[in-house]
Amino acid sequence: MPDFIFIEPKYFGQDQNDDHPPHNIFKGEKLIADVYNAIRSNPELWERSLLVVTFDEHGGFYDHVSPPSAVSPDDLPAKCDPNDPSIKFAFDRLGVRVPAILVSPWVGKGVEKTQFDHTSLLKYLIDKWSLGPLGRRTAAATRISVAISDQLRSDTPAFIRVPYTQLVPADPALEQEDSSEHHRALQAFAYHLARQAGNVSALQEASREARSWIRIKSIIGKVMLSTGAKLTSDLQDVNKSKVDVTMRVVESMIQSARSDGLPRNVG
């Protein structure tokens, strides 16, 4: 195994596993479970590994804690808002809190109360491999090593199972959604910046038109999927009823066999 591995989820398409709505977030959970299971199944690897699960976004606007001050990452002057020069950004404050999870036989259960920031992981790697300085904020960050114990745990789950039934979305049409209003806004902004710089080629424009046609087809496909689901709902109900009746008959036979004193594996 390499000393450091960075895993990025898939953000688009039916096989997405990025935890972003409207996708099925259980697929994101399964990605984490699959990584954990792969490491945990190898005892030697497990006992020298640290799995860090981080997020780039917070969970909403409910947080009651105001973002604290922070060390500016460099000595550059504060940047001004082009629309209002009186507003300056010194990058001397952290953002809203985001979750992070440390998974290892060397990490105990519980919540670590120490204040970290996104550079705390970098600080840990710098110290571990003597990488040298990576900015003032990283140098001032708290190491995540404060949450790592010198006691090896033996109570970690041997395997995390994510049932297949949880991976089937209630609305399959949403799983076909390759984009969102946010993604389209970012793409439009990127094209705007490229036009300002004169870097948009005819090929890029053609690609944009092709994506528009793909979105139209996606809309048509979702309508067809929804219509098909409605048309086949009666058949699905009948099939479910057949399964239920069959299971009741089988259970009845098993109970009857047991009451007659037959072996329990007759069913």
Describe it.
With 267 residues, this protein is mainly α. It has two domains: 142 residues, no CATH class; 90 residues, no CATH class. The protein has a two-stranded antiparallel ribbon with strand order 1-4. The chain has a two-stranded antiparallel sheet with strand order 2-3. It is flat. It starts with 24 loop residues before the first helix and ends in an 8-residue tail after the last helix. The model has no long low-confidence stretch (mean pLDDT 80).
Structural domain tally = 2
The strand order across the widest sheet is 1-4
Total strand segments: 4
Structural class: mainly alpha
Mean pLDDT: 80
How many individual helices?
Answer: 8
Globally, the shape reads flat
Helix content: 40-55%
Low-pLDDT runs: none
The biggest beta sheet is recorded as:
2 strands, antiparallel
Strand residue content:
5-15%
Order of helices and strands: HHEEEEHHHHHH
- How far is the first residue's CA from the last residue's CA? 47 Å
Q: What radius of gyration results from the CA coordinates?
A: 26 Å
| Assembly state (oligomeric) | single chain
